[in-house]
Amino acid sequence: MSRLQEAGTLRSVGVGPLRVSYVPDGAVKMVPTFLFPETTEADWSANAELLDASGWLTISSGAVLIERGERAILFDVGFGPYPEPTANLQYGMASMYGGAFLDNLRKLGRDPETVEAIAISHLHVEHVGWADHPSLAHAPVLMSEPEWAARRAEHGVTQTVLDSMAGRLRVIDDGDELLPGVSVLALPGHTAGQIGFEVIADDARLVGFADVFHSPVQIAHPDWPLVGDPAPEASTQMRQRVLGRLRENGTIGFGMHFADVPFGRVSGTSWEPLA
Fold first, then answer.
1. pTM for the full predicted model
2. Segment 65-120, tens digit of pLDDT
3. Domain spans of the chain?
4. What CA–CA distance (Å, rounded) separates 20 from 25?
5. 29 touches 41 (CB < 8 A)
6. Looking at domain 3-273, does it have CATH number 3.60.15.10?
């Protein structure tokens, strides 16, 4: 099976003195025409390399570990401790599961107790699932003010998770430093307060674009709206802006949901995965 069809695995890249690692938690197997409701079966026949043998689109879920020497932060924290796959075809989900985050974090040589902060891109269930785990209870939660202001206990985001965040919340804004060489990138559209991150060191750059893109197919089709998108036009404009940024000087991109090809570069209208 192609990496384009598989759930994400542990992968790391270096950016100067920083190490950026994808920490897998689980995945969602989606009905592609549900996730992208304006697409057709013909569209997916033309992009069949992204679909597994059952015709599902793989949307990985996990976290990013960003390390500089002994210091470390997390960006997002996966779906949560739910290893048993569940299905909800009403919402286009053939299978959804998590549970691997803590084990994978430790495989990278990092104990959760040594993480100094957790930045949350936006309040969707597959990004906040481990935020209330006791091993991370010490870590401040960093989030944009618009995202926190719009919080709701719905669509799998529980009041327990929100309450856990409330006592640890630190509001952050576009350009704020997360670690030396790592800054916040405001990416509104998918949600009002979505953020990503940018790593710049030694003439190298990596852009983590959160849910601006959900699949490599959108590199060629940034105009495809996402199901339930609250601001389709703003989201399309943001995809175009981020694409422009990714095309600059060999910039590395990071796609949280990009199956097993989270790190890559944009070449024309294609996502070129890093080894």
1. 0.96
2. 999 999 999 999 999 999 999 999 888 999 999 999 999 999 999 999 999 999 99
3. 3-273
4. 16
5. no
6. yes
